[in-house]
Each structure stands twice: as structure tokens, then as C-alpha cells.
Design goal:
This protein is of the alpha+beta class. Helix content is 49%, strand content 8%. The strands form three sheets. It has a four-stranded mixed β-sheet. A three-stranded antiparallel β-sheet has the order 3-9-8. Helix 7 runs antiparallel to helix 8 and helix 7 packs parallel to helix 19.
């Protein structure tokens, strides 16, 4: 090849790369949308990538720079994202015009175990699967599962009371509450009876822990999201072959046993089994059953356990709230003669408020994503701006963590104050721990009753207090893609000093 030709190719390649990179990174400048100047390749994620700031705080910092706009621009690496902060625009995007923004970003394309899960699938297929799975999480089905959850909570508190005694003991909450979360999912979703307090090294729990570690690996998740072709070529997986094989075999064996023995249980697995080989409507095969069951395990073990840990932490460091909540629990115990019912726990207003406030401070996800699927005109971002037409493929973020900690939305936002949920101060479009609109979490009811039962039994039988390991205020991890604390959750637990109005009967 002649030198002049080589030089021409090099110059052409450089010009192409320049426009590829800087063309994308000038997207919001061209549209005159408020944004922070991005760093080439890294966009606005540099503080998180270099571990100077957690992901939710990274986004919150940019959010706070534009207090008077309806939305602003953010560069997710080189991908431009429209970040909504106005409640009317949020409602417009997530609810009123849901059909224009009905899809999520799929970050699991190369992971066979969860590719095609409810979070990732799109359009009409999502609607069909959502309709199929929704009956699992109806109040009637959850009421049937209530007693199974209570048995898991009794195992939890029996262990804590016997292990900590009157002196008390400091626990890593993720360990003890993770066992409860694991056992609830095992029995309610898989039909498997597991007592992780008597058998802390059971294979189901150990592999559930291993599977949940993927959410802490921010680098792997980001690569999987932004460079799926690269991930596919290298064969990188979020889960080990051991995890994939174990849970797939569990589903296959459980389905086979239920078929042979005509076992019927009120759970998600049974509903999916009923849809096999259907000739009308949506059908589902064993691989899809495995995918949806496994995602339910991850959400039930990992996400809900994290929410329980934040909840216990907030109760443990706020004694006035702990005492007020315990008084409500004692009142229920008296009214139910020491046998709490689904109805009694579901109707506890202060317990509801405490959980909702904890989820406000620490939502399950720092942001919610939507993908535009049909042209849509957004109002101007600023009073002197122009309307913007979004095109299919454009990305929207709803910054739940930042919205929940905006003083315009929540006075004294960093204060743990359950009363704000008792006084009708909260606007629905600005509260989204389980998402918002039709694509909100399908298992919200299940997760809430799971949190309520855990809290009820824990305060019924235990006192919670901070330890020297307890971080006040909480410091968020700079490594995790989701909301996690630095150094873990630590709290001192002891058998309850004050006498409960009734005694737990074996």
C-alpha cells in the first residue's frame, strides 16, 4: 500500500471516530437542552467509573444543577439520555403515554439464564407475559402464602432470640435477613421447604447468594449493557455454569414431580405450568419457566433483602419510631390474641408509613429506564426552549433516588420521617420505589407483605440498636450498580427487654 493511501485512510478513520464520538456528545448542545459537558467515551459517568461517587449520587449531583428545568440531558457513556424531573412530564411519559415508552433497556441479552425475563421483553410479548404472571401476585394468592411467610419469620426470630439472648449480639443484617428472604422465595415460588437458620450452608441459599453477586459488579453490568456484541464474542456470563445448572435442574425436577404427583400449589410456578403447550393465547416452555422463576428468586432474595436491611437500619437508629411502631404491633397482638392475621398486618398504617419512608430514602433502584418506541413530542425543557421530538430508540431515565431526595418534593429529604406518609404529603408521580405506571414491579404486593411480616416479627421479639459498626449516616457504595452501603449493614439485636402482650407459642 502506498504511503499516501495509508495516510488518507488514517485521516478518514480519525475524522470518522471524531464525529462518532463528539457527534454523539454534542447531542444536547445541538438541541439546546441543559446538560453537563461530558467526558469523551465516559460521558457523565466518570465520577462513578473512577469510584469517586456512587451511581445514585453521581446522577443526583447533575440533577441538582438544574433545579428549574422539566428535564435535562445526561450521557450514559456516549449514549444521550433524557432525564425527567418534572412531575407532569413524568406522568406524561410513564402513565398517560405509556404506549410510546413501553420498553426497558435490555441489559441481559447475552445471559441465557435470564434473557427474555419480564423486565427485558418488549411490546405485545411483555403484555402477554405480564397478564399471565399477574394472578400470582393478587391479594388472594398472597393471602394464601401469608402463613408460609410467617413460618419463615418465626424461624428468623427464634434464631435471633436464642443466639443473641439478653446480652445482645451484633449482626450483619444481610446475612440473617437474607436467610429469611431466601426461605420465603424457596417456599412461595419453588415449593421447596428450606430452613436456612438451622441449615445455613444449604445449597439453595449458597447459590442464591452467588447469583445475587452480579448486581455488585458494576463493571460487568456496564459492559453487558453498552457492549453486548463484545460480551457475546467473548462469551462473558453474569452467572456461573454451576448457578445456571442448579436452578434449571430444580425447576425441571419440581415441574416433573408436580406433574407426576398432581401437586397443585398457589404459586407462580403452577400458573406457568398451566400455560404449557397452549394452542390459544400465550404458551410457555420449560426454558421460559426457568427464566421467570430465576428472576423472581434474584428479586426476592437480593432486592428485597436489601430493602429489609435498610428498613431495619432506619428503625434501629430511630428509637422514637421503633417504640411507636412496636406499640402498634403490640396492639395488633392483643386484638388477634397473639396470632397476627393477613388482614391485621395489612391494615397497620404506621408500619406502612415506616416501610414507605425507608423505600423513599433507599429505593430498590436509583433510576428507572424507558425506551421510546414511537415519535413523541416533549414540552420545552426550559421556559425559553423549544419542544423536542423523541424518536424510537431514544432513552428516558426517571431518577428515583434524586427525586426522592429533592427538598421541593420532600421537605427535609434526608430525615427519616414516616409521618409524611400519614399526612397525604406524597405525590404519586414523585414516589417510585417499585417503579411507576404499567411497568411497575409486578411483585409489589408480595414484597410489601414480606417486608411487613419481617418487621412485625422482628419488633415483636427483638430490640434493635446501633453498634460501633453501624454507619450513621449511611455511606453508599461506589462500586455497586444498585444502592448498597459501604461496609455492609450492621446492627445490634437482642431478645426483647419489655414484655410483649402475648407469648409466642411453639
Amino acid at each position: 500500500m502506498e504511503l499516501s493511501t495509508l495516510i488518507l485512510i488514517t485521516i478518514t478513520a480519525c475524522i470518522y471516530l471524531y464525529y462518532l464520538i463528539f457527534g454523539k456528545l454534542s447531542h444536547f448542545k445541538r438541541l439546546k437542552i441543559p446538560h453537563v459537558r461530558p467526558i469523551p467515551l465516559l460521558g457523565n459517568l466518570a465520577p462513578f467509573i473512577f469510584r469517586r461517587m456512587s451511581l445514585p449520587e453521581n446522577l443526583q449531583k447533575v440533577y441538582n444543577q438544574f433545579p428549574h428545568v422539566k428535564y435535562f440531558g445526561f450521557y450514559d457513556f456516549m449514549a444521550p439520555v433524557y432525564v425527567m424531573r418534572d412531575p407532569e412530564v413524568i406522568t406524561t411519559v410513564a402513565i398517560k403515554n405509556f404506549d410510546n415508552f413501553c420498553d426497558h433497556v435490555d441489559i441481559f441479552k447475552n445471559e441465557p439464564l435470564i434473557n427474555g425475563n419480564l423486565f427485558s421483553i418488549k411490546g405485545d410479548h411483555w403484555r402477554e407475559i405480564r397478564k399471565l404472571l399477574s394472578p400470582t401476585f393478587s391479594s388472594g394468592k398472597i393471602k394464601i402464602m401469608f402463613q408460609m411467610m410467617c413460618e419463615c419469620a418465626e424461624n428468623l426470630t427464634d434464631f435471633l432470640v436464642n443466639d443473641s439472648g439478653n446480652i445482645g449480639k451484633t449482626y450483619n443484617l444481610r446475612d440473617v435477613l437474607g436467610r429469611y428472604g431466601n426461605d420465603v422465595v424457596a417456599t412461595c415460588a419453588f415449593g421447596i421447604s428450606v430452613n436456612s437458620f438451622k441449615h445455613p450452608n444449604n445449597e439453595f441459599l449458597l447459590l442464591a447468594k452467588e447469583a445475587s453477586m452480579f448486581s455488585n459488579n458494576s463493571l460487568k453490568l456496564l459492559i453487558n449493557k453498552h457492549f453486548p456484541l463484545f460480551v457475546g464474542l467473548l462469551g462473558l456470563k453474569l452467572f456461573s455454569a454451576r448457578v445456571r445448572n442448579f436452578f434449571r435442574e430444580i425447576i425441571i425436577d419440581t415441574v416433573k414431580t408436580r406433574d407426576e404427583q398432581k401437586i397443585i400449589r398457589p404459586d407462580m410456578l403452577h400458573l406457568m405450568m398451566e400455560q404449557r403447550d397452549k394452542t390459544d393465547g400465550v404458551s410457555i416452555d420449560i426454558d421460559q419457566i426457568t427464566t421467570h422463576s430465576f428472576v423472581f428468586l434474584i428479586a426476592g432474595y437480593d432486592s428485597t433483602t436489601t430493602a429489609m436491611c435498610f428498613l431495619a437500619h432506619n428503625i434501629g437508629i430511630n428509637f422514637d419510631i421503633q417504640n411507636k411502631l412496636r406499640a402498634e404491633i403490640d396492639d395488633v397482638l392483643i386484638r388477634t390474641n397473639g396470632k397476627p392475621t393477613y388482614e391485621a398486618i395489612s391494615q397497620m398504617k404506621y408500619l406502612d408509613a415506616v416501610i414507605n419512608e425507608s423505600l423513599r430514602l433507599y429505593p430498590l433502584a436509583p433510576l428507572l429506564s424507558r425506551v421510546c418506541v414511537k415519535d413523541f413530542e416533549l414540552p420545552p425543557a426550559t421556559p425559553d426552549g423549544e419542544p423536542i421530538t423523541l424518536k424510537p430508540g431514544d432513552h428516558i431515565w426517571l431518577p428515583s433516588y434524586a427525586l426522592h431526595r429533592d427538598p421541593k418534593n420532600y421537605p427535609h429529604p434526608n430525615k427519616f420521617d414516616p409521618n409524611r406518609f400519614l399526612n397525604d404529603e406524597v405525590e404519586n408521580s414523585l414516589y417510585m420505589p417499585f417503579g411507576i405506571g404499567p411497568r411497575s414491579c409486578i411483585a409489589k404486593r408480595f414484597s410489601m407483605i414480606k417486608l411487613k411480616i419481617m418487621t412485625f416479627y422482628l419488633l415483636w421479639r427483638c430490640d434493635l440498636e446501633p453498634d460501633t459498626k453501624t454507619k450513621i449516616p449511611m455511606v453508599l457504595s461506589k462500586k455497586s450498580y444498585v444502592i448498597r452501603p459501604e461496609g455492609g449493614f450492621w446492627l445490634k439485636l437482642r431478645a426483647r427487654k419489655s414484655k410483649a402482650p402475648v407469648t409466642l407459642i411453639d
